[in-house]
Each structure stands twice: as structure tokens, then as C-alpha cells.
Amino acid sequence: MFDKKKSEQEVTPAGDVIYRYPASSWAASPVGLSDESTREFAELRAKVFERFFGEAHSVLHESLALVPHVDVHTYYRRGADGRDTCTLVTSGMSDLEMNVPAGAKRPRRVELIFYCDEPKAEYAETLRWLAHFPHDQQTWIGTGHTIPNGNPPAPFWGSPILDTILLLSPIVKRDGTLPDELVLGGEPVHFPSPPRF
Q: Is residue 176 domain-resident?
């Protein structure tokens, strides 16, 4: 698919290439991932997450033996407006580096943040799917990328129109500094975020 000339590929009206991926075939055991490194990475993430988000209200553990193992943590934080905002954060996606093209100055390790009024199981499952996507498809994702829900895209969460996720920079200013605090395997971990829902 990636060998086709741009003129042979599907493109947007602006001329950007549209990449289509087959249905996920979840990874079994990538090279270079050990129980020791994942345990060390999980401990580092837990320390940084507690400093940034406080104590986790809950953790939705991944029940399948997938690599990487991705859990979704739920946090509540008081906003400047006095309201509690729910923040869902993946933990485990950054155990593996993504397949970033050679020479590209893009983050190789990421976790995802999702801001919402209340946690819902379908939000957590969507985050987990997104977290596995770059590893399953041997690609990478980051701020500015769009990921449709299938081909053709199907609606997310019962919405009549939301069928594609757009990854943005974190909307909470402090969360944008997470890559300065969380470094795994010598790589800063970035936190692209779907829009607040």
C-alpha cells in the first residue's frame, strides 16, 4: 500500500494521502519487550500520573493477553470553573515504540488522554482500540491525525455523525508538559488527545 505513487493513492481534496488499514490483527509478542521493561515502565508511568492527575478513581484492566497491555485509568480533577472533569488516560501503549518513518521528527512513544464529563465503558474501549492501532498496523499516530472507525467509518458511541477521531494536543495546559516528566527507554512520552466529549 505504501509503495504506490501518490497519484495512484486515494487523496483528500487538499492532496494528502489517505491510508487505509485492514482490520486489526492484534500483536502476539513484539521483539524487545520484556516483563522487566514493562514493569519498570508501568512504575514510572504510575509515579508521573499520580503527580499530574492524583490518585486514580478506577483502572479498567485489559483482560486479554495482548501486547502491549493497555489499561485505562480514570481520574477526576477540579477545573477552574469549579466543576469536576473526568480524565481517562491509557497506560501501556508507550511500552512499545511506534513505527515512525526513518528520519521523521515525531514522537515514538505515546499514551492517550480523553477529557469527558463522565466515564463511559465505550470511551475506555475506544481509547484502548486507539492505543493498539499503531502497534497492530505497524504505523504511528500523533497530534493532528484522524482515525476513522472502520472502512467505511461507522458512528462512535451512538452518535449520528461522529465516525472519526481527531487527535489534538492536550487541552489542559499542564498536561502538555507530560513529555518533560515521562521518559521511557530514552524517549519522551507524548499525549495526543481526542477532543473533549
A: yes
Indicate the number of domains in the chain.
Answer: 1
Identify the CA nearest to 46 among candidates 76, 65, 73. Answer: 73
- Parent domain of 52: 28-190
> Residue 27 — pLDDT band, cuts 50, 70, 90?
very low
Mean pLDDT of the chain: 84
Q: Which string of DSSP letters, residue by residue, matches 70-135?
A: -EEEEEEEE-TTS-EEEEEEEESGGGS---PPTT----SEE--EEEESS--HHHHHHHHHHHHHHH
Instruction: Output the pTM of the full model.
Output: 0.80
Domain-located, residue 169: yes
Q: Give the integer Cα–Cα distance in Å for 188 and 160.
A: 37
Classify residue 173 by its DSSP letter: G
pLDDT at residue number 36: 66
User: Residue 79: what pLDDT?
Assistant: 75
Q: Is 149 exposed, middle or buried (0-12, 13-18, 19+ CB in 10 A)?
A: middle
